[in-house]
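Chain A, query sequence.
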Amino acid sequence: MKMDASPRQRSQEAEQKQGNVAIELWNHPEKLACSVGCEEESPLVPPLNFAMVDDGVFRSGFPGAANFRFLGSLNLRSIVYLCPEPYPEENARFLGRSGIKLHQFGIQGRKTYLKRVLLMQEPFVGIPEETIREALKVILDVRNHPVLIHCNRGKHRTGCLVGCLRKLQRWCLSSVFDEYLHFAAAKARKTDQRFMELFDTSSLVHLSAWQLK
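Chain A, predicted structure.
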C-alpha cells in the first residue's frame, strides 16, 4: 500500500517534473513551438462555387486563405485567373510555395464595363472571344493539369469559359446553359448565353483530343 506524499514532497516532485520538461524542450526546440502554438489542422474548405469540370479541371470563385489547404489537396499545377486585377500577394505566395503556375486572362466584369459606358469612356463590348480562346488553350494542355479556373464569384466569366469548353466536348446547348444556370442562378445573363451560343470552336478542335476522347 502506497503512503500519501506530504505537501512538501509533492511540491518537490512537481518542481523536478517541471525541470525535466524544461530540459526536454531545450534539447528539442520543435516541441517548444508545438507546445505553445500547436492547433488542430484547419478543415478542408473549398472556395465558393467549387466543382469538378472534368478529370484534372476544376472551377470556383476567388479562393481565400481559408481555402488554401483544400487547394493544396488538389495538387494543382496551374490556375487560370479571369480577372484583370493583380493577384493578391497572399495568394501569390501560396502559389509560389505550392509550385502552382498562374495564367491570368484579364476579362473586365460587367459592372466595370457598364461604369465605363456610363462615363462615355468606351462602348460595351462584352467578353473578348480571343481571350477565351487563349484561356482554353491553357486548359486543353494536359501538362497544365490539374488546373483550377476562377474569376471573382465563379459565375459569369468562369461560366462562359466552361461553357465554351463544353461546346468543344460536343455538349448540346441546352446542357451547356443548364450548367451555366446552376452556378449563375438568379444572376444569369442572356448576353453570356448568347456569347456561348455564338462562340466558334473550329480553331481549337485540333487541340481538344483530351476533351473528345
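Residues 7-27 form the longest helix (21 residues). The beta strands are 51-54, 57-60, 78-81, 101-104, 147-150.
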